[in-house]
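Dear colleagues,

I hope this message finds you well. In preparation for our joint manuscript, I am sending the HTH luxR-type domain-containing protein (Rhizobium leguminosarum bv. trifolii) sequence together with its predicted structure, so that both groups work from identical material. I would be grateful if you could confirm receipt.
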Amino acid sequence: MNRDVRFNGVGVMLKQGVATDLGFVTLDILRSDPYSQEWLRPFGLKWFAGVPVGDGLEKWAPSIQRSEERGPFTMEELDQLRLLSRGVSSAAAVGSALGFARAEAALEAFEISNKAVVILNRSGEAVLLNRAAERLLCDDLQIRNGHLTCRDTVARRTLGAAIHAVCKSAPGSELLHPIRITRQNGSAIVAFVTPARGVALDVFSPCQAFVILIDPMERRIPSPEVLQKLFPLTPTEARLAYRLATGHKLHDLAATCGFSYETGRNHLKSIFAKLGVNSQSDLVAALVSIATPLGIF
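The corresponding structure tokens are as follows:
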């Protein structure tokens, strides 16, 4: 980057909507510029024009190079490039919006299956995360300056390398390798970095990778939405079953959910009957036992 004189035109490009080499350097500089002489000239290229393309959050600069014989870009050609920039930028904005919509749908799917996930953009920055991932963030695992990082030095380097490889589509990056992230208070977390297939459909998509976080010691229970699909539970019964199985007490739930303790007991009896269990411990065992086949672990 330091050797590429074209980067000197970024300011001009952003201000004027287009930039050419003669707009920010002289012919003498072009004749002595290592990048122009060592990289472009052997291919018969010399004159440069660049336009900014982006959706407001990110900017790209497609580089257009042509031969010395064709001469510098004319004013008419620069006007055409400005129009091209606006059209592609509009497409980028639409692509970004659709990408976020797909990412939010994926995030909801992870939430329903009780999987903690952080969604990253092509720069490896965290753009979305679900509630399950938020619960795992701590001093040992946090998002700092937009990037997922951890206290453990080895894990931090391994995680950073995996994120870089996946976001840059490096060969072999599609293979899942567990990354062990130690915690001072609690068991280690296991992280998997994977491409966001089905979400990142084009270059404009803001979401390129998933970081799936797993706490092996956490009690995993199917979400209320899943419970309703598996058993003939009402929405209230599904929410109550989920909260009881995750360690909440019926008395406390009655107070927070707005019904009496006796009403809660009636809901609980109905849950027991529909699931074929006789106690709260049996209920927990039943829900945990179906978590693994569902892929929640």
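For the figure legend, we might mention the following. The chain has a mean pLDDT of 81. The longest helix spans residues 75-112.

With kind regards,
E.M.
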